[in-house]
Amino acid sequence: MAYLVLARKYRPQRFGEMSGQEHVVRTLSNALKTGQLAHAFLFTGPRGVGKTTTARLVAKALNCEKGPTAEPCGVCTPCVEIAEGRAVDVVEIDAASNNGVDNVRDIVEAVKYRPARDRFKVFVVDEVHMLSQGAFNALLKTLEEPPPHVKFVLATTDVHKVPETILSRCQRFDFRRLTLQQIADQLAKVAAEEGMRLSPAALALVARQAEGGMRDALSLLDQVRAACGDAPGDDAVAEALGAVDAAAVSRIAGALVGRDGAALLREIEALHDRGLEVKRLAEELVRHLRNVVVAKLVPQAPIDLPDAELAEVRAQAAAADAAQLTRLFDLAQRAVVDVKLAEQPRYALEVALLEGVFLAPGAQVSELVARVEALARGAPLPPPRAAGPATPAAPAAPPSGSAPPAPPAAPTRGAAAASGWRDLPAFGTPGCAAGSAPAQPEPEPRPAPPAPAAPAADPGAAASAADRWRAVVEQVEQESPTAAASLKQAALLGLGEGEVRVQLPPGFHAQSAERKRGDIEAVFGRFFGRPTRLALTVAALPAAPAAAAAPPGAAAPSIAASDAAERTARSARVRETARAHPNIQEAVRVLDGAIDRIEEL
């Protein structure tokens, strides 16, 4: 006789044998007892949790010779044939391969005929989300009003792909993943029936690899039996499944919590030498650290683990503070991503976890908070944790009778602590530099002395020419933004009688200004009140000279260059003001840090 795999051999044959789906069993049993069973059902949930099995149980309950009943006998002809999948009046359809309109039309045609022998004709459509849109549409009317002798059971793992028009016509049941303990208990029963001897740790390992699916768990148990026989050890089970031993993961987590880098590397090396996939190790470590964090933050929360593993998790949770555990959890989660992208996954995992080993102690954070709060209250600052033996030398006291010393460059610790944040001047006020070197006012620009050979250009006239040039370009922009964009790149050579002389570098802007010459000169004429031509010189623009070194008659900077220079200067002033603000300086001192960058908002 051919070998029957455990997943088929131990498929539930009665509602009472279903594990983990009590809410579904209870509802269907009550409906069968009261005769209020719907004509269409939708079973949705992960793979291997009992959707198709429940559909067969519904068919058996309806067609049992003693039914309809919530407890089919399992020995009559309809029950036996349905269990073996050969009942003529129970039609199972795989929608993944029969997903067209013609396939649904066959169902619609078959619905018209009464059952050949049984009480009901039951159509079980598995993976119903794979049907095409046309097939769904063809099924709508029949699904809404089937003949009284027809029942539909639709099953899917992706309910979000099923149209709302189908969902509204069905009674929906959501199947849950089984817990690790439920799977382990069921595996223990099956192992006892099969004469297998597995430790609770081995059963838990198989259950964890099943990820909530009973069918997957039984298939894995079959694999373990084929690889290791009827009495495998824990290590043999882990090796057969390519799984991570929970004890090894716990030791790695213990090395992280205990800051033992050497032990951490030894454990990773041992698992790597066994051929374990590094990605799976990282994922199992994330799962374990998540349980440790939950045990730390919510001690009364139920954790789906065997008793031995749960005790180890609680011990690790008690050995570290919540801040350290949360940071380790975050590091492990990011390590999963790094491992997937790395050319050397093992090294990526080791680097990420060693970073967790050498994380700064969480006590430094609480100490920092205490120092900031003390500063805000104006109380003396608690002494900072020493970073090394060196301590700053105290300033020498001035000799008696001498003149008062100059203001210090930065506020002293005592003065800053005594003053508190409230005593610091607001940002941007005249006294914002109190306690630091007084800000020197910017020297006002002085006009260059007149050249002896020729009279200097009138600064007022130059300013007036620049202002008039900017105004006329703004006028051009209202009528031709393209032309104005080119003129903003031009250096002004002069504004003469009936002529505006500008210089543009060769390229796009010079060509654009030439093409738009007519529009530009029309705006010039209206602006100046007389015909004015554009005298365009095409040549590379010289580097802009400094204001003090600009020779008389030199080309004025372009509007674009002037605006860019103004933005740069303004940004530099804002950044320097922010950097020199006493509040910022005091924060840098208290936090013992440095300004990395300043961003304008």
UniProtKB/TrEMBL annotation:
Where would you find the membrane-spanning parts of this chain?
none
Offer an example of a GO molecular function term for this protein: ATP binding
Region Disordered: start-end pairs:
383-469
The record ties this protein, via CDD domains, to: AAA, HLD_clamp_pol_III_gamma_tau
GO CC terms for this protein?
Answer: DNA polymerase III complex
InterPro entries under this entry?
A: AAA+_ATPase, ClpA/B, DNA_pol3_clamp-load_cplx_C, DNA_pol_III_gamma-3, DNA_pol_III_sug/sutau_N, DNA_Rep/Repair_Clamp_Loader, HLD_clamp_pol_III_gamma_tau, P-loop_NTPase
Q: Which Gene3D superfamilies match?
A: 1.10.8.60, 1.20.272.10, P-loop containing nucleotide triphosphate hydrolases (3.40.50.300)
**Composition bias type Low complexity, residue spans:** 411-420, 454-466
Subunit structure and binding partners:
DNA polymerase III contains a core (composed of alpha, epsilon and theta chains) that associates with a tau subunit. This core dimerizes to form the POLIII' complex. PolIII' associates with the gamma complex (composed of gamma, delta, delta', psi and chi chains) and with the beta chain to form the complete DNA polymerase III complex.
For this entry, the protein name equals: DNA polymerase III subunit gamma/tau
Q: Which organism is it from?
A: Anaeromyxobacter dehalogenans (strain ATCC BAA-258 / DSM 21875 / 2CP-1)
